[in-house]
């Protein structure tokens, strides 16, 4: 007897009242996609949980995949048995035998949604617990802090026995709440901002500005590698790579030095806004954090934000760098972000950008030139690539989640 399924609990998603059906369907689709290499898997969803039936597929890699699916609160590999006490005892013993090491402690946590079952929860705890004590050497009961917590759930259709609870990624299923454009640099912050936004159920398409030959292929590769990491949570991520050299050179030539940085950000945002419209996103996401650098003061954000009415999501806005770094470590993007390649902004950053730029001033400077043809040209020459969570995946094999 082996684990034949994985029981998935939804958590926060359950609070969503009327939207629930939509969320459950999205979660099911996302799980299917993440586990698509396991051809025999079947997914069954119920009101408050889902079952991934393994049908002979290996349990470990499936667990690994499920840990990154947003919308899952927790999950447990489980054995489904008939509703009779002998079958339950047999499944419980099997699980304990697999997990047990000498000296371990255990407890039985029985739950019953089918109240007509012949044993109540107390009765189940005793009946199953006694069977374990008789058949396993060197094991004791500890109800407070057991090494093995056997969960026996009696439901209307069957009984589910599981021995381990894995923490899920939490949040909402990716792409259950629309799509946003993530301004993805090669830095530490923007991938973390992308991760946190995806966790709230938002689908992400990345926009990256690069300025060859001032920025190298390796700098571009860094962004692709970061997108790979984010794709582990959604299956795939599209990146729009915008050629930004001409615009930066023009800014450098036309805009007074103290304002080049402000103007650069405004042009980036204008292009991102046009891409958002083109690809039907509902918001723009950045990795900005208040006060971190000159472009992220209140005055700067006011002057930069003025080019669009679209909601800009800034998940890191009040966070300290140290906490952002912690998340970057957890999602394994820190090492990639720390690679030393130049970013298009740092190269053109003046020695002392204005930390308190004035909106009227930057608008007056920009008015001297019609920027639209330059912006349109950059958008026309934007290269779009799709990266999947698997490194060697052919681009054409990747299904789009959105
Ligand atoms: P990050 O670590 O995300 O690069 P940062 O602290 O270095 O952020 P800035 O360089 O001021 O801050 O960038 C602020 C935000 O602007 C970034 O988080 C990102 O969302 C966006 N951004 C900056 N450079 C680029 C770029 N080359 N392409 C796309 N977006 C960018
Ligand atoms: Mg940066």
From TrEMBL:
Residues binding ATP, per UniProt: 183-184, 208-209, 265, 287, 296
Keywords for the protein's UniProt record, in alphabetical order: ATP-binding, Cytoplasm, Nucleotide-binding, RNA-binding, Thiamine biosynthesis, Transferase, tRNA-binding
One of the record's GO molecular function terms: CCA tRNA nucleotidyltransferase activity
Domain of life of the source: Bacteria
Protein localization: Cytoplasm
GO biological processes: thiamine biosynthetic process; thiamine diphosphate biosynthetic process; thiazole biosynthetic process; tRNA 4-thiouridine biosynthesis
Pathway: Cofactor biosynthesis; thiamine diphosphate biosynthesis
SMART domains: THUMP
Catalytic activity: [ThiI sulfur-carrier protein]-S-sulfanyl-L-cysteine + a uridine in tRNA + 2 reduced [2Fe-2S]-[ferredoxin] + ATP + H(+) = [ThiI sulfur-carrier protein]-L-cysteine + a 4-thiouridine in tRNA + 2 oxidized [2Fe-2S]-[ferredoxin] + AMP + diphosphate; [ThiS sulfur-carrier protein]-C-terminal Gly-Gly-AMP + S-sulfanyl-L-cysteinyl-[cysteine desulfurase] + AH2 = [ThiS sulfur-carrier protein]-C-terminal-Gly-aminoethanethioate + L-cysteinyl-[cysteine desulfurase] + A + AMP + 2 H(+)
Main location: cytoplasm
EC number assigned by the record: 2.8.1.4
Residues covered by the THUMP domain: 60-165
Uppermost EC category: transferase
Functional note: Catalyzes the ATP-dependent transfer of a sulfur to tRNA to produce 4-thiouridine in position 8 of tRNAs, which functions as a near-UV photosensor. Also catalyzes the transfer of sulfur to the sulfur carrier protein ThiS, forming ThiS-thiocarboxylate. This is a step in the synthesis of thiazole, in the thiamine biosynthesis pathway. The sulfur is donated as persulfide by IscS.
Family the entry assigns: Belongs to the ThiI family.
Stated name of the protein: Probable tRNA sulfurtransferase
Species this chain originates from: Lederbergia citri
The organism's taxonomic lineage, starting at the top: Bacteria, Bacillati, Bacillota, Bacilli, Bacillales
